[in-house]
Design brief:
- There is one protein chain.
- This protein has a domain at 41-184: Sandwich (Immunoglobulin-like), CATH 2.60.40.
- Strand 3 and strand 4 form a beta hairpin.
- The protein has helices spanning 2-14, 128-140, 167-183, 193-204, 206-210, and strands at residues 45-46, 53-62, 65-76, 83-88, 96-103, 109-116, 122-125, 143-150, 154-161.
- By secondary structure, it is of the alpha+beta class.
- It starts with a helix and ends with a helix.
- It contains 5 helices and 9 strands.
Length: 211
C-alpha cells in the first residue's frame, strides 16, 4: 500500500509545471490539543458528558504525502438520528468524493459524499439507510477501512480498530437509540445543535470545528 502511495505521489508531482511556485501544504496545523492527539490505542472516547458522542483515532494514508497521517471517526446523534463523520488531518478540498468503506471482511459500501468542514477535511455519512447499516457494522465488527478518492490519483485511506465490547461505544449506541425513541414522543426536548458543538469542543478543541 505504501509503495502504491509513493508511486501516486510521484505521478502527481510529475504533472506539476516546474515554473509554478510550490503549493502550500494541505496538512492541518492545529494550535491546541485535539482528538488527533489522542493515543492510537484502539479505544473509543466520550466527547460529551450529556450527549451520545464518541470518537476513535485511527491511522491514515494519503496520496498528498508519503508520511503516515491520522484520521478520526466520530459517531453521534443530536437533533437528527445517528450519523457518522470521518475527518483526516489533511485537507481534502471541496466538492464530492467517492467514499468506500468496509467492516472486517464483510461486503463493502460505496457512495458519493460531499467534503465538509471549515478546513475541508471531513466526510459525513448521514443517509438513513446507510447509517443504519453503519451502526449495525459498528456493533458486530472490530475494524473499519474507509477510502475517499477522486480521479485520477487522489486517495485517502483511514483504518480504525476497536474492541466490539468497548464500553464507551456501546453506551453511545444505546444512548442514540434512546434519543431516537424519545424524539418519537412530543416532549419538546430536542437538543440544541449549538450547545452540542460547544460541549464537544470542550473535549476535542480545534478538531470539533472541523467535524
Amino acid at each position: 500500500m505504501r509503495a502504491a502511495y509513493r508511486v501516486a505521489v510521484l505521478l502527481s508531482l510529475g504533472l506539476l509545471v516546474s515554473c509554478e511556485p510550490p503549493a502550500p501544504s494541505e496538512t492541518l496545523q492545529l494550535s491546541r490539543p485535539s482528538a488527533f492527539d489522542a493515543p492510537l490505542d484502539n479505544r473509543w472516547r466520550k466527547a460529551s458528558d450529556t450527549r451520545p458522542v464518541a470518537v476513535l483515532l485511527g491511522r491514515a494514508e494519503t496520496t498528498q504525502t508519503i508520511l503516515p497521517r491520522k484520521a478520526v471517526l466520530r459517531v453521534s446523534c443530536n437533533r437528527r438520528p445517528f450519523f457518522v463523520r470521518v475527518s483526516y488531518d489533511v485537507g481534502l478540498k471541496g466538492g464530492p468524493m467517492v467514499v468506500e468503506y468496509r467492516f472486517d471482511a464483510k461486503a463493502g459500501h460505496r457512495g458519493d459524499v460531499q467534503v465538509r468542514g471549515g478546513q475541508r477535511n471531513m466526510l459525513v455519512i448521514d443517509d438513513p439507510s446507510a447509517v443504519a447499516a453503519f451502526q449495525a457494522g459498528l456493533r458486530s465488527s472490530s475494524t473499519l477501512k474507509v477510502r475517499a478518492s477522486r480521479p485520477p490519483f487522489e486517495m485517502h485511506d483511514a483504518h480504525f480498530q476497536w474492541d466490539p465490547d468497548d464500553k464507551v461505544l456501546n453506551e453511545v449506541l444505546a444512548g442514540c437509540k434512546a434519543a431516537v425513541d424519545a424524539r418519537r414522543q412530543p416532549n419538546g426536548q430536542d437538543a440544541d445543535e449549538a450547545m452540542a458543538a460547544e460541549d464537544i469542543m470542550n473535549v476535542l478543541s480545534d478538531t470539533d470545528r472541523l467535524f
